[in-house]
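Hello Y.,

Per our agreement to keep a running log of every chain we model this quarter, I'm adding this entry. I've kept the format consistent with earlier entries: sequence first, then predicted structure.
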Amino acid sequence: MVSVTASTPEWARLNFTSIRRHHLGLALRWDEARRQISAALRGVVKREWIDGADHLLVETTHPDLSLRSIILRCAAALVGPARRPLTPRLLMAALPITNKERLRWTKDGRLPRSGSVTIRAAHPVSVGTYGVEAVARLVADPSIIAAWRHADASAERQATG
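Predicted structure for the entry above:
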């Protein structure tokens, strides 16, 4: 969760390091999460991100807004980036897999899709998405991917020999 690491009567220092480190969706989309937090606080309190850190200085002198409500606004702003399904690019940033493996494992169902998004360019293209929780389980247990690779290698040896 968001923690307060320093506080004065005028300012509080909110620390997002722990939540960023422990939530895959936020780790992969941290720039977007920072923009969402800033947008949630825009026009409400003065705020300033500390360069090179996951810390935000917020003014706490607003007469109608407590530090707790500021933290709740920040937490609510993090829900979208944290839960939104991962695109193939973000999936591959999270997992040490190749695009070929991603396609094979998606096709045979080992890597479950959570849905798809349509990208509208010259021609609409549908791209599969992956649930953050499912990918987080794979990140937490690399032996699953190792077992998939071993099974693929065994199947290839049987097919060729």
